[in-house]
Specification:
The complex is a heterodimer of chains A (about 270) and B (about 180). Chain A has about 270 residues and is mainly alpha-helical. Chain A is about 75% helix and about 0% strand. Chain B has 3 helices and 9 strands; from the N terminus they run αββββαβββββα. The longest helix of chain B has 25 residues. In chain B, about 20% of the residues are buried. In chain B, strands 2, 4, 5, 7, 8 and 9 form a 6-stranded mixed β-sheet that branches. Chain B has a 3-stranded antiparallel β-sheet with strand order 1-3-6, with no helix packed on it. With about 180 residues, chain B is α+β, with helices and mostly antiparallel strands. The chains are: A mainly alpha (about 270), B alpha+beta (about 180).
């Protein structure tokens, strides 16, 4: 009598794609180069902040906030760059046809690539931890800052990565995909440069709340600089949450319309 | 002295007497600001509360009363930005009836170590010429503690990018060999 072998469970298609993409990104060196540049940027910022000997208690909290906000913005930017390149880059390198012939669904393909692009945000968050610890230990906000950076950064990076992936699915040129993604990120960050008088009032506050990037960064500021509790300004996280969920769902839905040429040729 | 000039002198004397009497019984609002304590000892980063009682000791209402908190350093060379200590330093308390008072609590965060004086000034918006009234100053002693070591930043700022660059170079070299 021969023993019947137990059926082996096949891994989900998206995990296979994600594994291959992760190896490509990290063992290929591209993600490591980006994270090295990112850490260099953080080093310059933190050096300038810490070497100022006249920082008072509040300014030191503000410097932790600034570091967390920059880490979120730049970490999300890195994830966006990788996502924007994921499909349109393969189109341009003429490798998309072979990828589409692999025995996984288009949705699994897109979700796997999305997960791999998102991994750089996780790395960016791990890298910022020592910087936050250095600046924040004297003013007792290390754990709040680390946790808050993770929560807000994850929401924003998820939404922005999904958006860049949508653009990458839609356009046939890698340059167009990267340009559109970066332009949208800059437009979302632009209101942070407005004078505080323009941010107050009904219209200014509404714009700030509706824009997921400014709303998320505002929440970080209130929690870390002003010492508010986690739940006190939770309504500011509504738009980052909605944006992340809606864009991820839209990407999963639109993944089935992934074609060799993008939407232009349809 | 003629009769007319004597009458003039009497009239002038009467006029002075009338003005003097009016000034002696000067009616109007009289604001006083009192504090619940005059000395606070605290640590850097701690929020302290100071309570003031603003009273109208006059016989007329003090309309449009505004209270304003200010902080200054008692030591030369210590920079103070009162906005860093409290973002809520002006209170519009409105009208204070004769004999009436208003309690105000001021929360300030000690953001710099050293010796500071905190005081509250009361101003009436419609009577600026009578001058502001200032209450007694509260001395705040803030004990310092080291919150940031600027010397320690260099190893961190250099070490992390250098470590990542080394890993990146090792990965690339391994890939090239493979």
């Amino acid at each position: 009598m021969t023993a019947i072998a137990a059926p082996t469970r096949r891994p989900a298609g998206w995990t296979v794609v994600a594994g291959r993409e992760l190896r490509d990104l990290w063992a290929g060196g591209r993600a490591l180069t980006l994270t090295t540049v990112y850490s260099l940027f953080l080093s310059v910022v933190v050096y300038l902040l810490a070497s100022s000997t006249n920082l008072n208690f509040l300014e030191q909290r503000e410097s932790v906030t600034l570091t967390a906000q920059l880490a979120i913005a730049v970490g999300a930017l890195l994830a966006m760059i990788l996502a924007a390149d994921a499909i349109s880059g393969e189109r341009e390198r003429s490798t998309l046809e072979a990828t589409l012939l692999s025995p996984v669904s288009r949705r699994a393909l897109v979700v796997g690539k999305l997960a791999a692009a998102f991994s750089i945000w996780v790395a960016a968050w791990l890298i910022v931890i020592p910087y936050i610890w250095f600046l924040g230990r004297g003013v007792d906000i290390v754990w709040e800052a680390i946790a808050c950076t993770f929560v807000v950064g994850t929401l924003l990076a998820a939404g922005l990565t999904a958006f860049a992936m949508l653009v990458s699915i839609a356009v046939d040129s890698n340059r167009a995909s990267l340009s559109v993604s970066l332009l949208v990120l800059l437009a979302l960050l632009a209101p942070t440069q407005l004078p505080s008088s323009a941010q107050s009032g009904w219209a200014g506050e509404s714009l700030y709340r509706l824009n997921p990037v400014t709303a998320g960064e505002h929440y970080v500021g209130k929690l870390l600089t002003n010492g508010h509790g986690w739940t006190q300004d939770l309504d500011w996280l509504v738009s980052p949450m909605i944006a992340a969920v809606a864009l991820l769902l839209l990407t999963a839905v639109m993944a089935s319309s992934l074609t060799l040429t993008g939407w232009r040729e349809r | 002295m003629s009769r007319r000039s004597l009458a003039g002198l009497i009239a002038m004397a009467a006029a002075f007497a009338t003005v003097g009497a009016a000034q002696a019984g000067a009616a109007g609002p009289q604001l006083q600001v009192d504090v619940d304590r005059t000395h606070v000892r605290t640590d850097l980063g701690t929020t302290v509360s100071v309570r003031t009682v603003t009273r109208n000791a006059g016989d007329l209402a003090a309309a449009d009363t505004i209270l304003h908190l200010n902080i200054l350093s008692l030591e030369r060379g210590t920079y103070v930005d009162p906005e860093d200590w409290s973002s809520d330093r002006t209170r519009y308390v409105g009208s204070l009836a004769p004999g009436g008072s208003v309690d105000t609590t001021w929360r300030v965060q000690a953001v710099t170590s050293g010796r500071f004086a905190l005081y509250v000034t009361a101003v009436q918006a419609g009577k600026l010429t009578t001058g502001p009234v200032t209450g007694p100053a509260v001395e705040i002693d803030v004990a310092g503690r080291r919150t940031l070591d600027p010397d320690g930043v260099l190893p961190l700022a250099v070490g992390i990018p250098a470590g990542l660059a080394l890993v990146s170079a090792a990965v690339r070299r391994r890939r090239r060999r493979a």
